[in-house]
């Protein structure tokens, strides 16, 4: 069916070619085109959020309806979302409790500052523990690659803490460990990153071409 | 059988202990918060103090996940997902839908303004609505029109961007003389052999590394004999690079943890710095 | 010696000193006319032309560099709309200092890397900047008088506003009251624009009245209520509309200005005197017109590389179509896909597919969705439940389409449940919390972490590893690779991620594109090695110049 398969692929091709070609043209229209597309994606993304919110809430409704294990916890999703949306819309974020808008913090800001920020900051900081356990996991692997990785990690990490200078001072080379860390970052790290990026560039170009020419269309749910 | 029974009793007794500990910790948290934060000090607002206590509570709850999943974590997790969703919805409304769709179309100041704004937005609005067809099983294929646009844009732009920022920039960095010429004769005379040789070694290390890592990614060459050795060099480079990057991040993550501890100490417990 | 004589001597001395100082000052300040003339380039080297590779907003005046110019000399480029305007002194001046930055070689983006560029100075002439389009009408005291006469402003209010109009105190030094007044003035500044719209018939009388009512109301924003508040908001919308309209009109006017013919003369100057470029004792007037060019020449290297690599890949796709037996080496991470799904089937547990943070326009996300389609198809074949966690709604929509199709193709469309491909959360760390929580509770047998990740990568993969699942990760975010390497069983690094879908499909044309990538890589390897050798030799022996090699790959 051409309107289910062909038209979307034609859209992909035409927009793709325009997206590629407009970069080489100094016409002011080319810049306008890019600005418009950015705005378009913002608008489509706005609609997308409705879809996403529906999907997220639907999943939790199903959990509650099917009484899956732990279904009661899903209620908190609704409490959190409803609370934020109500205070966000009501009185422009000032909520029902403030009589007139003032320059003070809104209830919407309150929800952000005292729920969202502590949660994200705490989860982010859990990484400190996870880095240790990930390193230990690698240590247990006991092969050459893991050893290389760990040694490099230790050297760079140690070179970046102030203590390394006092350790270096014991044998008269204060800047020894920081220097080692710098050397690793400057030479092997740069080389590998460059190799990864160069390889990736070709992979990306090749994938883009497969998509533009309709060879790869599995993202449309259309198998080959 | 007995063994199974044993584990069951031990796990159920462990659960009871855990529950007791949990209740104890929550009570302790409540008492400490009440003692430290109440009565309110001059200039403090009740809602801010409650907010800080909630924030501190959530901090502890998320750390409790490090031990194991527990009811409080489940509550906090779902609440957080909900709050983030609500926040995202309001922000999307305020920053994208209201200024880009609602205000220009539904609150257009003049009819000229309305038609002018509509002409720019009619396509994305239609595409946005088409995206909603995902909710129907029968017409969901219509959403392909919307995301086809994004995929096409991403693919086309991708070729250009990748060529600029990966291929050209990296080749520019890679292709340079092994040894920079030293034009100042006084400086050149003072350079030791080591000083002169060192940059050459460094450049060679980078060149060999880049080439061998690229070789590692070869798909149509069997990694045998010489190739195997060369790609092994590439893997070694990759591992050292990953290790370096890992080690480089550790301090940053530690400072996040310190930040949380500082929040608990200075803001929740109000310990003076 | 008398007292008077002593003073006279002093006076004389002072006069002599002053004269010397004055003369010295003159000599330092002024440059002799002959020296100015000597600084002028030969008239034959002066050229006025359209700036290449641009959007038609600039003209370039170029002239030969003159050696041994006396200090204190700079160039003045005089630009007029017609040759007669020079007589009436209606011209604008662009000043060009004699520095490296003014040389043609300082801007390789437009002029290239030619060695000869070091012998020319250039002046960039931007007509729309020199002769800017007329601005919007400004608020004047007359407007305020009219508002008072119309009884919308009181006398006291008008005094306040007039005082504010005259004030030039910076914002940060104002008291709160004055700040509010300045805000109010900002609203009132719309008045002439609103009246202009009304005169053009673009704004009906009732709306004009509403606008005037809203802008003359001096109440602060947060003290408003009811209808006044609605009026204030409406005024903000009107202001936004007017601003947009103005910008558009200004842009159009600027374009028209840029299209005009401009007349230029060149002079050497010391800041006061000028010596013009002459021919037959007449000041030479050059004329030129900017135009919109069709191609950014400075992006030529990008275009050549992009087309060359595209050509190679497309050629190999064609070759593979005719000769489908291509050798592709084993990629462990991708061989593991079947193993992982098989294990999930045996254990009767689900397979997780965890998307990264990327949007649908990102290449890594597109790659992830393509991999998902292969994974979902295999899971559907094995009748294993697959759960896809999403953070981006549009990626979710695509994933739903892909998974639904996989089930349909496997002959079991009813087994597809959209709740399995739902949005897990909407922000980075709530996503991490939701997905890790689910991993711990549902204990999937296999986890695929594919796409572009940020700091949440380790949170997800470490939790996954602690549940004992087989993990296959793939990302192009080079900073997250170390974390996947340390915690996942298999990691697809960069290019392998992009190749994954092709590899899993086993379709000849797709595999052909991988072969094409290899040729591209070989080319880059050779280019790097040869480039480094040539440049090193060039530096070592200095017999030839090899800078052109770096220029070839320079991003401008």
UniProtKB/TrEMBL annotation, chain A:
The chain crosses the membrane at residues 7-25, 40-59, 71-90, 110-132, 144-163, 195-213. Keywords: Membrane, Transmembrane, Transmembrane helix. This is Uncharacterized protein. It comes from marine sediment metagenome. The lineage of its organism: unclassified sequences, metagenomes, ecological metagenomes.
TrEMBL record, chain B:
The chain crosses the membrane at residues 19-37, 49-67, 79-98, 118-135, 147-168, 197-218, 230-251. Keywords: Membrane, Transmembrane, Transmembrane helix. This is Uncharacterized protein.
TrEMBL record, chain C:
InterPro entries: DUF6754. Keywords: Membrane, Transmembrane, Transmembrane helix. Pfam families: DUF6754. This is DUF6754 domain-containing protein. It comes from marine sediment metagenome. Residues 292-540 form the DUF6754 domain. The chain crosses the membrane at residues 303-320, 522-544.
